[in-house]
Amino acid sequence: MMLILEVYFKNFPARKKVAEFLFENGLSVKNGKIYLRNVEVPISELSRIIGVNRKIIYHTIEYIEKTYPLKLIFERLTPLPSLIEVAPIMGWEVLEIEIEKSLYSQAVAKVLDLLSKNNISIMEIFSRNLRQEDSKAYIVIDGTIPVEVFIKIKDTPGFKKLILHTPEKRKENFVCAYCEVRYCPKKVVVEKS
Length: 193
Hints:
It contains eight helices and nine strands. It is an alpha+beta fold. The chain has a four-stranded antiparallel sheet with strand order 5-6-4-7, with helices on one face. The protein has a three-stranded antiparallel sheet with strand order 1-2-3, with helices on one face. α2 (13-24) packs across α4 and α3 (43-50) crosses α4 (54-66). It is elongated and about 55 Å long.
């Protein structure tokens, strides 16, 4: 998607900034307005948040609606709600895995298979493999991940970095600098070989 925005907005950096913000937040463009699902978003508030003047936003909307491929994409955008941020509050763990782009599909499949074979209940999976971003997968677990499963994940082909977000109260508890295991009450240390 970012390549599409790069092509269509290469001569308009301020408009590109607006289009990227709309895409990343799932805001749609319809009938000369910007929407969050069916709720119209005020242009003045967007301009303040994005850091451009209102005129740039109006020009971006006009350009999107005049450019058929962009119009097709932007009129269908919707935000995706996620449990990632609220999981620790609910007593769930979140496994955040950074993956090598070339091995993305295999790595995600291997981790999911590993979790399934160990009867670990998955609440939600959110994963992105866009060209300009690091490839990541977020897996919300109902409960906790057994230490032995957590350690096996490091052997997954394509594994780069692991962050485990748990409901531990002491948020300053940093266990492993390499894997960025945070808030882990199990004191697991995992190193890539």
